[in-house]
Design a protein that fits this description.
Layout (H helix, E strand, L loop, with lengths): L2 H16 L9 E2 L6 E2 L11 E4 L20 H11 L17 H7 L14 H4 L16 E3 L10 H9 L36 E6 L3 E6 L7 E4 L16 E7 L2 E7 L21 E10 L2 E9 L8 E9 L15 H26 L1
Antiparallel strand pairs: 1-2, 3-5, 3-12, 4-12, 5-6, 6-7, 8-9, 9-10, 10-11, 11-12
């Protein structure tokens, strides 16, 4: 029995045992499965706990699925079995896009990669007790537009895209990516996307605040005020933006603006838009003992022809969270730049040697 199934069994058993206890406070019951929505002492849905967003489902729909929004039950079952098998590399993000089953089977194991691929054993260091699989039958996390892909860029955004530097330069630390510089990851919310690994997040609640703590994050836990205060002045910009929350029925709505415009200069943040005008609205709805339905809408009329919507199921986990400290002992940037300078010096010396021998 998998760790996820054990967690689900314990959760259902606990609810059955405690269903008549007044400690649960107000509840919303479902006649179909007997599950009751737990609530906090102030009567709001209880979203607290540790959750995982791990999935091989990509943000955008692969070409091989064309107009298909969902996998068949048979396809989903086969992919789940293949992707959660022992030894599968959790970093093989393109596995979902590989149509041929035999080619996909070969690709998902790190041992089959080209010998030039130098990396530690991902199945040892990055695989979690609850292995990454598929959290739904969708063929993309994006649900709007219906083609499962980001909307078309505006003409202004296309021009900006053409002017962005290609690759990772070595002229300066400023030419390296924001994630490599331990500033912010593209998956950090909002909107939150499944990271490559360390994908657990924890939610805390009080009557006045909701705290969202992502394990793999270079920023502080997101503290969302729930007291109706206005957003910060537009002049104040933050990497994770400025979040404000409210309840609409049993759904937590979190609206975020005031993102730092510096991220727009980095290609791996294109999905976030220009950042100066972007607005993200997240929706958290507890739909079962082990699941939160997480959906977000991203709007930026300066970047896309329309808004886009994605959803990522959050699955309860009992795995531990660990400190993520990117800055500690991070010698990557100095080493990358020093190697680049050494190679430049070697090139100058070789050119001088060739010139002198003529």
């Amino acid at each position: 029995m998998t760790r996820r199934r054990i967690s689900m069994l314990f959760a259902v058993t606990a609810i059955i045992c405690l269903g008549s206890s007044p400690a649960l406070g107000q509840t919303r019951t479902s006649a179909e499965d007997g599950w009751a929505l737990p609530r906090t002492p102030d009567g709001q849905p209880d979203l607290q706990g540790r959750w995982t967003m791990a999935t091989f489902t990509p943000l955008e729909r692969p070409d091989r699925f064309a107009d298909r929004e969902f996998l068949t039950e048979e396809e989903a079952a086969a992919l789940r079995e293949q992707l959660t098998a022992d030894g599968v590399d959790p970093l093989r993000h393109d596995a979902f896009s590989i149509e041929d089953a035999e080619a996909r089977e070969k690709a998902v194991y790190q041992a089959n990669r080209d010998p030039s691929y130098v990396h530690y054993d991902n199945t040892i260091w990055l695989r979690e007790e609850q292995p990454k699989g598929l959290s739904s039958r969708r063929t993309s996390l994006i649900v709007e537009p219906r083609d499962g892909r980001l909307p078309s860029l505006t003409s202004a955004a296309q021009q900006q895209e053409s002017q962005m530097p290609r690759g990772r330069g070595t002229d300066s630390y400023l030419s390296r990516t924001l994630s490599e510089r331990c500033i912010v990851w593209p998956h950090e919310g909002p909107p939150m996307l499944p990271p490559s690994y360390n994908d657990i997040l924890q939610i805390f609640q009080t009557p006045d605040h909701v705290v969202i703590f992502q394990e793999m994050s270079n920023n502080n836990p997101r503290i969302v005020p729930m007291d109706g205060r206005p957003h910060l002045p537009q002049a104040i910009r933050l990497w994770p933006g400025d979040s404000r929350g409210r309840w609409e029925g049993d759904t937590l709505i979190v609206e975020t603006t005031n993102f730092s415009s510096k991220a727009r200069y980095h290609r791996n943040f294109r999905f976030r838009g220009s950042n100066a005008a972007v607005r993200v609205v997240e929706r958290f709805t507890r739909v079962g003992p082990d699941r939160i339905h997480y959906e977000f809408t991203v709007e930026d009329p300066t970047s896309w022809e329309s808004a886009w919507v994605a959803e990522v199921p959050m699955i309860r986990t009992d795995e531990m969270m660990f400190e993520y400290a990117c800055h500690e002992g991070n010698h990557g940037i100095p080493n990358i730049l020093s190697i680049a300078r050494n190679l430049e010096e070697q090139a100058v010396e070789e050119a001088a040697s060739e010139s002198g021998s003529r």
